TrEMBL record:
Residues 185-234 form the HAMP domain. It comes from Dyella marensis. Its EC number is 2.7.13.3. The keyword Transmembrane applies. This is histidine kinase. The chain crosses the membrane at residues 12-33, 156-179.
Amino acid sequence: MNRPNAWRSATSRLILIYGALFAAWGLVLVGVIQWESTRYLNTVIDQMLEQRMHYLATTETSRLGATVDAAITIDPHGVMSVGLFDAAGKPLAGNIARMPAELAPDGKVRLLAQGLPRPDRDGSQVRARALASRLADGRILVIAKDNSTVDGLGAIVWRALLWAISLTVIPGLLGGFLLRRGPEKRIRALQQATDPIRQGDLTKRLPVSGRGDEVDVLAAIVNTMLGEIERLMNEVKGVCDNIAHDLRTPLTRLRARLYRAQQQLAEQPEAALVEASIVDIDQVLGRFRALLRVSELEDGRRNACFDEVDLGGVLQQVHEFYAPVAEDRGQPFVLDIEPTVPVRGDAHLLFEALANLVGNAIKFTPAGGEVRLRARMDSRGPRISILDQGPGIPAHERDAVTRRFYRGDNSRAMPGSGLGLSIVSAIVRLHGFALDIGEQKEGPGSRITLYGYTVKPGEVPGTCLSRTVTPEAPAERIPPVAATG
């Protein structure tokens, strides 16, 4: 099972959602603060301009020019600008060189977007709020206040927002990384716990931390479901095994009686009917034996007696056993093996599994077609492949062919019970190995590969694989001469 993407975890999403909400709320909050602050400062500036205009407008007419010049001497930086103009707009006094075009002499405060020059800033334009009023003698008095205080406050507010976001996001990311590690560790533990369950071991359970959080509640629910599934599966398996076991004795007795009847009816027409009945009973008994064999292998306790097994020797035995069968069918049976390391397992069970696979290959390969038994060494362990030139297993059946009694479209007309690959699958699961069912790259036919090491679900061990079947995945079986079914 693949490791989940860290940025797609619930914790990461909560952190991102929180960060987005914090940024959006911060923008709204700063916008409101800046709007309120700007409105308040503009009101204060407007009041200052109106008070200064009232003071100068009430000054004696003959002394107004001198008063204006005196006002600018106490403000060398030009924060508060004053200008006196005649009716035609010609400057008479003050530090405003020309009449602002966008300012009407109506006594209302306006924002000069183009600004006024500041003496202490090399004459660069700065935004200002200004007020113009026409006096009784026709002259125009202009008073302007630098708006840099308001703009500076807005810049301070936005810088504060950036600092707040950075001081929140950076610790939030670090904290989110630390908070995410705990759930990720628990998810990995759950993934590791589900691997044997997915391989058919229903005795395993998901770990519960004891914290009582949502993950523990979910794990407890799944464990309850697993317990019920295990109970039901054991009941069904027990019923099937009991039926197969209990029916073997009366069927064996019936076969013995039919055999005695056949001996007594020798050379009579009824003897052929009795012989056909014996053949049918043998097929039923064979299926019962295969069912009990699968149940025995699925018990899993036989692996306690595993030992080191030389796969090369097992393959030699399988080849020697089936070489005469292939020769009778005119099929070249090629043994292509390289030295491999020993594996831990049961030599008799591995022989049985490989014998089933080779028997299937020989049975489905037409006369004259080649069957190849190949062994290679991967970086992690041995890999055994059985390649034939038969019709192959369709892709849509590869996930079903190891189910008990499953018969594929290509095998319905062939003799057999459909239990051989169930035995192979049980042996593979018992050893913890992997089975891959695919098609040949070189031509028609199937390729079944047994990996002598553990392959994780979804993992592709080799570059030549079209797909990877986990040890519990199904595959089809064609019963060999010496195999069950």
